[in-house]
Each structure stands twice: as C-alpha cells, then as structure tokens.
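Supplementary notes for students who missed Thursday's class. We covered one full example, reproduced here. Read the sequence, then the structure, then the short commentary at the end.
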Amino acid sequence: MNRVPFTPSGIALKQHELYGLDDNQLQLEATHLYANIVDWSMQHFILDDDQINWLNQQDDKFTVEFAMKVAKGISLRYDINIQFVGPDKPVPKSKNISARENEPYRSIDITVHKSDE
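Structure (token representation):
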C-alpha cells in the first residue's frame, strides 16, 4: 500500500485504497490498526518526526479507545471524515482527538484540535 500525507485528501485516498481490498484483507488491516495504531499509521501515512513523537506520547487509554473506534469503522467500511481545527500548523499539539460513530450515516468523524501551546 502507498503512504499518503496525513491530510484530509490523503486520508480520503487511503480510505479508497483500503476499501478496494477484499473483506479478509481489510479485516487484517483493521486488526493491525487496532493492535498498534502508531505502527499502522507510520506504514500508511507520511508523518514527520513531530507527528510520530506526538503519537508515541499519547496515553494507553486514549490510544486504545481511538484505535478501537477507527478499526471498527474501517472494518465496516464507514466513511472517514477528518477535520483539523486550530492554528494553521502542521503538527497536532493537543490530544483532543475524538472518533465517533455517526450512525445511521456509517461514518467515523475525527477532529484533531491543534494548539500553539
């Protein structure tokens, strides 16, 4: 699979690539994401050192919950919507990321709150 930028358009490309897989291959991707979201993200997205460090610094509770919701949405082929909120900086500084299942519309909505602090 190709690595893509961690941007809304890059995530849309990744969704298209993932959802082109057969069900078994897609389930393997979702399982890998759930087991290690940092490793999965580094294999699928072009991340800079600050973004990788940010991912590695998140607490387990946050990482497990976030990975679980995104993996479930991917395995069910939900639309993935990502929005970056805050200053126009490339690195998310806040861990205020939420993933929510937006049923009945079959989408996962992710908001990344950025901060100067």
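Commentary. The chain has a mean pLDDT of 81. The first strand starts at residue 4 and ends at 5. If anything here is unclear, bring it to office hours.
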